[in-house]
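Hi R.,

Quick one: here's the JmjC domain-containing protein sequence you asked about.
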Amino acid sequence: MGEQDREQEVAPEWWRWATENLLRGVPEGQIAERLQAAGVGRARASELLAAIVRSPIFAAARPFARAARRHEMLARLQQRMARAACDPTGIPRRSGVSAAELRDVFIAGNIPVILTDVVTRWPAFGRWTPAYLAERFGDVVVDVTTGREGDPDYDMHAERHTQSTSLRDFVARIEAARAGTNDFYMVAKNRVLERTRLGALLDDVALPEGYCAMQRALGSSALWLGPAGTVTPLHHDTSNILFGQVYGRKRYRMIAPFETSLFEGARAMYAGRDPEQGSMEPVLVKDVVLEPGEALFIPVGWWHHVRALDVSISLGINSFPFPNNLDGYRPGKVA
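And here's the predicted structure, written out as tokens:
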């Protein structure tokens, strides 16, 4: 290789940079000017760009890059409009929402809403307390997650932390943790409603006509029970969920799916960021406290971080009367 050829060698990072900018739609002339400013000769810069464009890999990537640019434009539009709201960090509280409005406005629109008059009509409201559960179902053996504070990925590793105990002993443990703790919790993965006599608790749940298919609720509902201080890390789900707060309060921090920067560093359903640890800027966070007797509609794909402010009993239901397994993040199949 001659001295002139060595001078014209282009570092791999410039090949990557040029390819990325071509895929982003930057005009070739602008890219060539930048390469020349970095010391690449005019003829060599033209050859490099021509080689990239002729590559079959580049040709295959181009339509995906165009689609990505369109989605980025849509996400930026949604982000700007969300910040234009009168209360951009709040979630509306509504009463009297019919099944048609819930479906046409909030479910179809992928909009969270707090329903103030749904849980208050359940026989469960005012009846379900830790003491009531211990008295009626104290002998029932339930699975709970323990030792969570010793594992930074406790929610992802729930199976590793699962232990069996009687509900009576678990309630006693909750009552003893007056200062609050995140070390133990009965979470959705326990499936106690489906596996134990606790399924009878659904007799105390009466949703408005058309909200959910209650005949499927047993296998599509989750009971949450724990002390103050329990935390569910920032994550998203692949179905719509109606989350009824029966006892105690929970603080929700929710982030829309169009805040796509959260996918950076995410692992499976879990974000790589924590809204309790530093600023989430520039991400817009909706921050609300769910009071006893309120139900929160969590649209599919919305990131949410949850902290129990009190001893808490909650019921999550996702047996909506339409297909609700909406895993849009699953890898595609070979075309």
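Confidence is low (pLDDT under 50) at residues 1-7.

Cheers,
M.
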